[in-house]
Design a protein that fits this description.
The complex is a heterodimer of chains A (253) and B (319). Chain A has 253 residues and is of the alpha/beta class. Chain A has nine helices and ten strands. The chains are: A alpha/beta (253), B mainly alpha (319).
Chain lengths: 253, 319
């Protein structure tokens, strides 16, 4: 079997005495959509932040195509093909939509120097996501749905091999969610591997090839979507153990 | 509602080169028009301030890093040029060195201070600035607190000062525009708005801040050097004073922070009124600057350039 695009080994993050992520290991095969679900505070975003370089892991290793990238800064990970989107979007509000994506085109994996070429590349990405009509609009003035797509457009414009999507459908209408999931599917078909965190279990089950369930920072289960849906431990984590609700020790917010 | 920002037309793009070119030609011809030496001197000072204003604007306006420590670079440039010219070096070579030395110093200043964010960075630069002033006050090879007199051994004309300063200010404008419309400039704009988001798109904020700091320090240092040759006497309480740092910061804020012409405008206004204010209100001229600063920040954060822009937009759209 080919080397997985990303291998994570016993990754752990402590905030003070609390383990937000503990001993999580997995491997993401190329061109998969690999999903992560779990209750609030399960450690999904922390996991992503460590892989994208925003947080230094307390322990464990991260390997990209066999190369150790643990503890590398976000900007150098982007250059080696790992990009992320944020749950809470952070567009450059005083820049146009096109300029937002142009930054990513300049400093992504292709490292485009000429502004004209970077703008062309950015325009192509906007067209793929149906944002070209907003190209010259200030990012501060577009809707949340468009801002979510802009967040994705920026990450895509860096030409990632591995794309980390954190709740790109959060706050979107069912129709917008459908469009976004179609986009993910198309991005994967173009050869990009995707790691996908979402609260909406249905969305995850619809697009993912492989799903991992996190609970209290630890791996609870992993497998194909249909396996996960019937996993007893997963059902308990989400709905509580039969007859245990009164103890209140494991209720899910 | 959406605001469309349109790309400039070809005519406007051409005007961007033609108008500054014309301005440069007019300014270059001015000394032949029989102006009084006092006017020429005032213009010289203005060019020096325009250069520092543009230099500070690269870091403070383009990149959003507010520094109160630019007197360090102005002073280092002044002393570098002074020491070299006094020892008989070519003045233009000395001005080059007056750019290089502060640029190197800016890296030393930036390495620790750019680890800090926002107000903490600003406060750290005050500390660096004051420490440098105290060191220079006690450094014997430069005459310490009693200052340094520059004796120029080569013949030169008075008008040389004017042309040197004009050329330098033009260089600062050109450098500012080149950076603004480049990949480098995009990185700075991204860093100004959101450092983490910029890093997520592949920008190394620390490296870019160090780089633009060096360019800004070089321009500011050259201005210090050109001023030193003209003044023929410099002293730490002057060029390294905290007040100098505040002046350098004040100009782009008055003119319009973050825009090239705003920074130029700020330098021009400051250069023209500074001496009048000092002469007419020696006790309270600093108070006047302070009041002006508060007024601008409250009423028009985009400075005079922002005010002019609003005015012209209103002219264009009659109602």
């Amino acid at each position: 079997m080919a080397t997985p695009i990303l291998e994570v080994e016993k990754l752990t993050k402590y905030f003070g005495g609390l383990a937000a992520v503990k001993d999580v290991s997995f491997a993401v095969p190329e061109q998969h959509i690999y999903g992560f679900i779990g209750p609030n505070g399960a450690g999904k975003t922390t996991l992503f932040s460590m892989i994208a370089g925003a947080l230094e892991p307390s322990a464990g290793r991260i390997r990209s195509r066999g190369k150790d990238v643990t503890g590398q800064q976000p900007f150098s990970l982007v250059k080696s093909g790992i990009a992320r989107t944020h749950q809470v979007v952070r567009p450059f509000r005083a820049m146009t939509v096109l300029e937002n994506v142009q930054v990513a085109a300049h400093f992504g994996r292709k490292n485009i120097t000429r502004t004209g070429a970077a703008r062309d590349h950015a325009m192509q990405v906007l067209a793929r996501l149906g944002l070209e009509r907003l190209a010259n609009t200030l990012a501060a003035n577009i809707s949340l749905g468009d801002q979510k797509r802009l967040e994705l457009a920026r990450a895509l414009a860096t030409d990632p091999e591995l794309l980390l999507c954190d709740e790109i459908c959060g706050g979107l209408s069912p129709t917008e969610t459908r469009t976004m999931l179609d986009l993910l599917e198309r991005i994967r078909q173009n050869g990009t591997t995707i790691m996908y965190v979402e609260h909406d279990v249905k969305a995850i089950m619809a697009v993912c090839d492989h799903v991992m369930v996190l609970n209290y920072g630890q791996k609870l289960a992993e497998g194909k979507p249909e396996e996960i849906q019937n996993d007893q431990a997963v059902i308990e984590a989400y709905l509580g153990k039969a007859g245990s609700q009164k103890k209140g020790s494991r209720t899910v917010a | 509602m959406t605001t469309a920002v349109f790309a400039p037309s070809r005519l406007e793009a051409r005007a961007r080169f033609v108008l500054p070119g014309l301005l440069l030609v007019v300014l270059a011809l001015l000394p032949t028009a029989g102006l009084t030496p006092n006017i020429i001197r005032l213009l010289f000072i203005t060019f020096v301030w325009v250069t520092t204003s543009l230099g500070w604007n690269l870091l403070g306006g383009f990149t959003g890093q507010v520094s109160f420590g630019f007197a360090v670079f102005y002073g280092l440039g002044a002393y570098t040029a002074a020491l070299m010219i006094d020892r008989g070096a070519n003045p233009y070579l000395s001005f080059l060195a007056a750019g290089v030395v502060p640029a190197l110093a800016s890296v030393l200043v930036g390495l620790p201070t750019f680890r800090l964010r926002g107000p903490y960075f600003a406060i750290a630069t005050i500390g660096v600035s004051e420490a440098t002033r105290v060191i220079m006050n006690n450094l014997t090879i430069t005459g310490g607190a009693s200052g340094f007199r520059i004796v120029e051994h080569r013949p030169f004309r008075q008008v040389d000062h004017y042309y040197t300063a004009l050329g330098m200010a033009a260089l600062a404008v050109a450098v500012s525009f080149l950076i603004q419309h480049s990949k480098f400039g995009m990185a700075l704009r991204a860093i100004k708005q959101d450092e983490e988001a910029a890093a997520d798109l592949g920008v190394n904020p620390y490296a870019y801040k160090l780089a633009i700091h060096a360019v800004a320090a070089a321009l500011t240092g050259m201005a210090g050097g050109v001023f030193a040759r003209y003044a023929a006497f410099i002293y730490p309480q002057g060029v390294f004073a905290f007040q100098t740092s505040v002046y350098i910061l004040l100009m782009p804020v008055i003119g319009g922070i973050g825009t090239v012409w705003g920074a130029v405008l700020g330098g021009v206004v400051f250069g023209m009124v500074e001496e009048q204010l000092v002469a007419n209100f020696p006790q309270i001229h600093l108070l006047l600057y302070g009041s002006l600063l508060i007024l601008i920040i409250l009423a028009e954060p985009d400075g005079l350039a922002g005010l002019l822009g609003k005015f012209f937009r209103r002219l264009r759209t009659p109602r």
